[in-house]
What does this fold into?
Amino acid sequence: MHSWGSMHGVCVCAVILLLQGALAGESESLDSGAPHVNQVLCWSPKYPVAVLCAWSLQPEPLQPTSVTATYRLGLSGKKMTCKVGPGPLPGPLPITAPGPLAGLLSGWCEIEHLELFVLQTYIVSVSVENHTGQYSFILEHIVKPDPPLKVVVTPGSRRQLSVKWAPPPSWPDPTLFPLKYRVQYTQEGHAPRTLGPYERCEVVLRGLRPRSSYSIRVSAQDFLDNGHPSDWSLPISAHTT
It folds into this structure.
């Protein structure tokens, strides 16, 4: 497994590159013209209910291609089917997804009913023809909420901005599995400042410069620091009085 960023750092998801090799019992090189699994990425925007896995194929298939996705808990676990989803990915692909995956998303599947707080790793295998890509994870390590929504910024009294937002709707139960939030604001022409974490979905930014333009965005993270923070919400512009 190749870790793309620190497991407990700012971001981001890990990537498993294709386990490339000769076909079983053969030593010839693989046909470079046939599609193969280039990268596999898994993350959990719906913790603890489900995990999404996505992959890219290279070269891009010119006709419909059969892809099989399976998962198991540990090397000896029972192999289960990760049902390949129809249509587009149900939610945003993490901004930090590597280039080939972000540029050419070939398919995705969703895994439900995973066990919580187990030390064994889940192993996801994505196969097309004779090529297989794999991704291994511990559920709590790949938690990554979607960004908060409905960010609203309102000028308050002099040198203040009131910021409110809503939890990402994909997060199943903010009551039993709460989120915490960080708010980043940037004055035009200055470096950004990040505040938090906050447990509530609102904060008042104080001590700002009067009659100045600011850009504000919000990030969410599992309250117990499982996994990684979400990507930042779309920036909202506001002006102090």
In short: Residues 59 and 142 are 28 Å apart (CA to CA). The longest strand covers residues 36-46.
